[in-house]
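4.2 Preliminary Data

To establish feasibility before requesting continued support, the project team ran the inverse folding procedure on a target of 390 residues. The structure was first converted into the token representation described in Section 3, and no sequence information of any kind was made available to the design step. The complete token record follows.
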């Protein structure tokens, strides 16, 4: 059977993923490693923006980028060209962590003022949890102390009664792992509420109500897994829910794979679509963990995610003249962005690259490409049945 799009082998696909991630990351990490992020990063906002974006946008850019980039960095340096490139970005990321949490530095970030820093303290914490050997252990004692202090300082922010509860849990999970103690109430409450808010078939409500958007992928499913993974490692009772959350996330990953059209397009539904291909964080994480459902092959996910990334990247005005992301979905479309979104917010798109944490020899990269579900079906291929779960 002939399919309409060209296929690439796994090594070519991996090279494309790496090149795209580093293109997105360069402006943020280079500037922050030199203590010049606040001096050089533009702050594009919507016409009806919430106030104070200049005070929160820098932590957004760094925390979200680090969260998505961390699994790739965790592979560490090696003698291959890619391994040498990773070494460069590991060095930049460590410098950036130091500068972002140094109270005396020009790029010291806001972890306490307004509500938004709680969100991005959580993404920052998630990045550290995803790459402890490369982004935590080698830090100096001074930098580690500064990181712990910054994360603890975010406790002054009260979360909304929604997915925001998970931001408190993520911060506390990092404190438990790296500082040895945490506020266990702030860990237990979001997990218990999300068990209440489960609606069936792999989907959680965003709070008590269902929202048809991508927050199950932007936040909910990945943070439930990353929090309970720490609790399981630490042999805390709440870690017993890890397998339950994983089973639900596997079903949601199957749904996400089916949302990707033959040409890499997908439904534009709900809030925060300016996060672009960050909408597929959950699918990327389940592929990274090699826990895809039985009927979803790793190489079909590789092709599907690549098609999504390429579709976005073909828009000529996704970046400004200096390489910073612009507000929009397909290129520069500031009208799609909500009032809470500014330049830094956009770097949540990096979450699609979690799969780069799989080594080049993993089946995700080494298997021959398989057509993803919609590409297969719309080409006359096998239309396998789909079935809901509880």
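Position-by-position output of the design step:
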């Amino acid at each position: 059977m002939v399919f309409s799009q060209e296929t690439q082998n796994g090594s070519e696909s991996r090279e494309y993923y790496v090149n795209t991630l580093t293109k997105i990351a360069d402006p943020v990490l280079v500037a922050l490693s030199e203590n010049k992020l606040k001096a050089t990063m533009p702050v594009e906002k919507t016409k009806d923006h919430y106030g104070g974006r200049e005070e929160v946008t820098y932590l957004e850019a760094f925390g979200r980028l680090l969260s998505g980039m961390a699994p790739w960095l965790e592979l560490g340096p090696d003698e291959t060209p890619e391994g040498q490139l990773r070494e460069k970005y590991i060095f930049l990321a460590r410098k950036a962590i130091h500068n972002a949490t140094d109270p005396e530095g020009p790029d010291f970030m806001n972890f306490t003022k307004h509500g938004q820093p709680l969100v991005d303290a959580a993404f920052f914490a998630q990045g550290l949890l995803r790459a402890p050997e490369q982004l935590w252990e080698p830090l100096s004692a001074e930098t580690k102390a500064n990181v712990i202090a910054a994360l603890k300082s975010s406790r002054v922010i009260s979360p909304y009664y929604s997915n925001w509860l998970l931001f408190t849990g993520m911060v506390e999970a990092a404190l438990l792992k790296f500082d040895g103690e945490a506020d266990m109430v702030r860990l237990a409450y979001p997990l218990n509420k999300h068990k209440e808010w489960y609606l069936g078939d792999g989907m959680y409500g965003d709070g008590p109500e269902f929202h048809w958007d991508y927050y199950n992928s932007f936040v909910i499913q990945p943070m439930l897994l990353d929090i309970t993974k720490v609790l399981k490692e630490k042999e805390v009772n709440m870690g017993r829910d890890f397998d339950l959350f994983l089973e639900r996330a596997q079903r949601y990953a199957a749904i996400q794979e089916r949302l990707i059209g033959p040409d890499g397009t997908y439904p534009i539904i709900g809030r925060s679509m300016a996060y672009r291909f960050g909408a597929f964080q959950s699918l990327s994480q389940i592929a990274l963990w090699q826990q895809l459902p039985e009927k979803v092959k790793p190489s079909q996910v590789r092709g599907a995610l690549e098609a999504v990334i390429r579709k976005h990247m073909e828009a000529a005005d996704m970046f400004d003249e200096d390489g910073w992301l612009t507000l929009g979905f397909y290129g520069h479309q500031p009208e799609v962005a909500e009032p809470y979104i500014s330049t830094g917010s956009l770097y949540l798109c990096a979450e699609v690259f979690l799969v780069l944490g799989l080594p080049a020899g993993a089946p995700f990269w080494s298997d021959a490409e398989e057509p993803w579900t919609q590409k297969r079906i719309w080409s006359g291929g096998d239309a396998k049945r789909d079935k809901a779960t509880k």
